[in-house]
Amino acid sequence: MQCCLLLCLVLLSPQVASLRHHHPRAAKKRVRELPVATTAAPSNREFTFDLLRALLAANPNQNIIFSPLSISVTLGMIALGTGSNTKAQILEGLGFALQGGPEEEVHRVFHQLLQELSQPREYLQLSLGNALFVKSTVHIHDAFTSAVRTLYLADTFPTDFGDPQAARKQINDYVAKQTEGKIVDLVKSLDGTEVMVMVNYIFFKAKWETSFDSKSTQKHAFHVTSETVVQVPMMRCEDQFLYLQDPSLACKVVGVPYQGNATAFFILPGEGKMRKVEAGLNQETLRKWLKMFTKRKLLLYLPKFSIESSYQLEKVLPKLGIRDIFTSHADLTGLTNHSNIQVSEMMHKAVVEVDESGTKAAAATGVAFAFRSALMASQRIMFNRPFLMFIVENTENILFLGKVTRP
């Protein structure tokens, strides 16, 4: 799985700044026990699932894939350079403002997460990193660049945005190198007004603990809608998997473990229950699921698929209350003394590929759970209609989250 997030800061002329003011941009072979969470992202609010619902609303009937961790880390970095209401919107959007406590706690937790996720792993590849490309003639506060290096482990590079083609090549070459060539041509164009480009990337590649036998993969019908049916390559595996049935959300959840302490979870809503599941997903439900899975022998049918998504987050995040950073109201006094700088673009791109060998890519309510007792015979579960998925690695933090509408 590969994800990348790009954020551009532009230097506006007073005339353009005024225009933006009046027209703001719309902007191993066994089923292991689930790991105990170590460091959790600093959020009580449903940022991850609110963002999912916003993306679903903006992209109806489409495949969705994104990395909430990648986006959260980037917002944390941005918060370091903001002040007043701009900072408050970001922290509240992440859920931190509702918890209270000093802002430093947000950055400390993100720092610890980045350190943990950057540790080498024997069985899977997971790379998560940040970089700043800064125009040398525009002064960025030393305190800001020092903080992003120390807290967010970010690389920083002087960049000549006066030569847009050279700047674009510098950024794209860096990202391609960091993701082993999996993410190329991230920056499509620059116009010379940029003063800083902030990049966050995340790359994940892992093999299933129990591979699907490619000889068992056959074409099966996938019901995109009640009227639209397509033929897809359907993988098949009979083994012990993590399993639960949530009657309150009318869905079944299957956990398929990777080698190296990561797990992919696939959520299959009952017929006609997708919207109910989408609306009911929240952090507390996820926590309960992770604690209450049982091992179950399943005959699992899962489609091979490859999906890719790109999002202009300056059009999505305002729906979650993060608005000012994308307008002339942006307070970036923690980043620079220039008053006419704002975020012009925040782009997130993700790709996920699932096949027989594994996954490759470069994103409290009172609920009563009831579990059916495990039977000796295998239960057959076929993901032959739209489903949701998420990937976690060693913690309850979601690396990637998505919806497969059409494989």
Automatic annotation (TrEMBL):
Residues 1-18 form the signal peptide. The keyword DNA repair does not apply. It comes from the Eukaryota. PROSITE patterns: SERPIN. One of its GO terms (cellular component) is extracellular space. GO terms for molecular function: serine-type endopeptidase inhibitor activity. Residues 49-407 form the Serpin domain. Keywords: Protease inhibitor, Serine protease inhibitor, Signal. Pfam families: Serpin. InterPro entries: Serpin_CS, Serpin_dom, Serpin_fam, Serpin_sf, Serpin_sf_1, Serpin_sf_2. PANTHER family: PLASMA SERINE PROTEASE INHIBITOR (PTHR11461:SF274), SERINE PROTEASE INHIBITOR, SERPIN (PTHR11461). Belongs to the serpin family. This is Plasma serine protease inhibitor. It comes from Pteropus vampyrus (Large flying fox). The lineage of its organism: Eukaryota, Metazoa, Chordata, Craniata, Vertebrata.
